[in-house]
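Collaboration report, partner site 2.

Our partner group contributed sequences for two proteins of shared interest, and the home lab folded both. The records are reproduced in the order in which they were received, starting with the first partner submission.
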Amino acid sequence: MRLDRFLSETSPLTRSLAKRALKNGEVTLNGEPIKQSATQIDTDNDVVVLNGERLALVGVRYIMLHKPVDVECNARRGLYQRAIDLIDLPKAERLQPVGRLDVDTTGLLLLTDDGQWSHRVTSPRHRCAKVYIAELAEPMDGAAAEWAIGQVADGLMLDGEETLTQPATLRLLSPTQAELTITEGRYHQVKRMFAALGNHVNSLHRSSIGDLALDANLAPGEWRELTDEEIALF
């Protein structure tokens, strides 16, 4: 790999800033100062140091984040803090959310720089179940609850859609708290499903994706890397 590319891959420097750092004598290769940006290096064996710090390539990462409210999943900076801003890792900006959560939705958010793994999680073909806990504005119990459970199981026609939602599972945890398990990812789907049932979602939390549940030890805003066993679930 070219040295300037290696610097841009392993540090905050862009390619142009990496070339400038080389010209300024800020980089050593195997203990020797080097200024040629096109120098080819062995990324496994050569030792590259930038301003006293040894650099190493960043491998693929798999992150579980307990997303809090007022955090968005966009790559671009907007009105709210981004999910990747909460991840204290080198080159965190390379991490991409695996699916998305609305800015006011909390819970399990996965991030990775492994595009194939992300596709396996999000592809409709794999029908990966996602479980949400919704706090509802209006109570649902008795016959109304039974009707809603049946409607969700049969599929709902959402406003502006032309096809029914895929069969889903609704379970009432209390008259105003519901657990909804879906296998799709339509725009604002959970909120729109409850709207189709004549209700309104006051707050929404994603508790699991497939067989992977949000770590109960993670407070909102906290994250950890997935274990090998968890990565292999998808």
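Second partner submission, folded after the first:
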Amino acid sequence: MPMRRRVLAAGLAGVFGAAVSGRTAQAATVPPVRLDQLNLVNLSHVNDPATTNVFPGDPAFSLETIATIPADGYYLQFVREGEHTGTHWGAPGHFNTGQPLADEMDPADLFRPAVKIDIRAKAAANADYGVTIDDLKAWEKRHGRIPDDAVVVLWTGWDAKWGTPAYPNTGADGVLHQPGFSIPAVKWLIDTGRLGRRGGTGTDTFSPDVGTDETYTVSKLVYQRHRISLEILANLKALPTTGAWVLVGGPINRKGAGSTATIFGVLPPGVRAD
């Protein structure tokens, strides 16, 4: 293996070792990881105007073919959408004035250790369910401490509803009914360092907020410093409960609130979905 690749692989091994063990000091004992041994899983929906649920009030999403190979020698579409159409990431300035926007973030902000918390049963019983501190502590009792600066992903089961009216789950009063984090739970994640400076939240719904909370209090708490939110995630069955990382790719718009994204779960050797 060329020296440059060995150095990069060793660096990644240290990073992944720290995520799996939760202790940076142990990372030096983890053997080097070859880059071709990493497994990627796609956590993004395909953006299709026929199936994409758009958050109420956001711009309509459309794709228009503006060039074809027979007529122009190449194929091209014109995309019209809001920055947070479909699977996307949000920057702190999305909800907080003066906080970093997309072009002010660091690459490391978009590559974070991740844990998955499966609340599908509770969400099925109560679409307005908010994850509690007790839920988080019970999860840690079983799986270990959430790593600092991690992205905490909720698997609510809403990814299976994508492209249908059941996804926004709008009531007769026009209010969304989707599960999320309770305010005390997110405060606890922040106060204990688990979200840290550059962690965040993830969900297969529109937002980390419970849908009925139209004050977006959870979002305002999460979106600070260099923390991010990953929203409308797909294929969460393929994301392990612990040991994986999330890698966020998408256009970096000037003064962007984030962007539509292709989000990958990055699985080190030996880490498998449950």
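Feedback sent to the partner group on the second submission included the following. The first strand starts at residue 39 and ends at 42. Confidence is low (pLDDT under 50) at residues 1-11, 13-28.
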